[in-house]
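Review session, final week

We close the course with one last complete record, chosen because it touches almost every idea we covered. It is Amidophosphoribosyltransferase, a protein from Dehalobacterium formicoaceticum with 469 residues. Go through it on your own first, then we will talk.
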Amino acid sequence: MRIEDKLNEECAVFGVSLTTDEAVGLTYNGLLSLQHRGQEGAGIAVVDDNNILYHKDVGLVSEVFCGGEFKNLSKGRIAVGHTRYSTTGNNKRENVGPFITEYLTGRIATAHNGNITNALDLRHQLKENGLYFHATSDSEVVSSLIAYCITKEQNTVLGVVKAADFLQGAFSLVIASGDNKLIAVRDPNGFRPLCIGQNGIGYAIASESCALEACGFEFIRDVLPGEIIVVENGSLTHQGVRLGKKDDGHGLCIFEYVYFARPDSVIDGLSIYEARHNMGTVLAEEYPVEADIVCGVPDSGLEAASGYSAQSGIPLVSGFVKNRYIGRSFIYPTQSQRDSAVRLKLNPLTTNIQGKRIVLVDDSIVRGTTSEKIVRSLKNAGAKEVHVRISSPPFRHTCHYGTDIDSEENLIANHMDINEIRHKIGADSLGYISIEGLKRACGKCVLPFCTSCFTGHGESMPRKKDIFE
């Protein structure tokens, strides 16, 4: 049972094409660097002499690959990996990526980050044409559609281009083919991040630049919205914008900067650390308050807290000790234990906060339950006042593009005003960053943003496309 009312990303993708037999090990290291994007499952597929071998299962990367699994994978030169957080489909092995799909002339392995809004329609059309599905994930639909189009086009790259034209929604893809190609695709809106790196033995594609650096690749650039990149035998053989028109009102999910991405990543021209620090600066301008110390909620509130402190002149102090060893396996058998679970992960540092007026900076309030427990824990530890500052605007709408936002009736901002939320969570004051302030904080990003979870603008329904016409 999830104990925090936080947002969750659904997955990460990573792939390499090398001139040496190090693909599996580098992909494993890449997935470890991207573990924050998904903790429910992990998998790696490797191309071995025109065949594709793979291993995947539920669990963390280190749990899925904890022993002899590597022995069953070759020391191939092309591999793709995936870490999963489920937005569609149950959390079971069959729904973990990469998805391996066979077709008449070969095999592909597909790792997908995003959410396909017309997946049910595509699944229905493919089933009518005799395709069989083993899982309930939209990522399996993506892989099956690509394999179908490759068969029709009799060309791997053209098949990927054709399939991508039918996909609606968010998709950053890394595909390994049996004919020794590594293919990267980003949807025309650029909802989800994807970047490319290079070193002396080949290329890597990753959801975030932090994974490239951790694996010894130099970051080259982001994959552009609508772009397809092809790497063969460790060499870049194709790069270009090939896909269709973007949907108006959409762009990169702005929550990549607020919460999802690691602070040492750079996405679409903007450092995640810099963006979050700027958010704190804007919060201090928009919601100043007299206080003794500024504290960030670990981990996603720390950078914004540093920005608030720098702008306001109020000292930045550690307010919590975080238990990093509970992990996924800690069990909460009763409701009362689940209610107190926040204390097990975040314990107030009484020496620093007792008798103090605190500015508490966090990334979001979804249902309000976690914020309420954190504020209460600070006051129980002796805090004189707790002034909450949030580095995202109030959530009012669910997301169709892969961000796991609770149903709209459960979003606290939809049935309480700011003062009522303040009273509910027990804060002495409450301030959310404005949408304009958030965009200003992320102004160096080279892409437009999707902010429809805050505004409701830009939402669109899938348009049916007949893939058999």
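Two points worth writing down before the exam:
The two ends are 45 Å apart (CA to CA).
The chain is about 30% helix and 25% strand.
Good luck, everyone.
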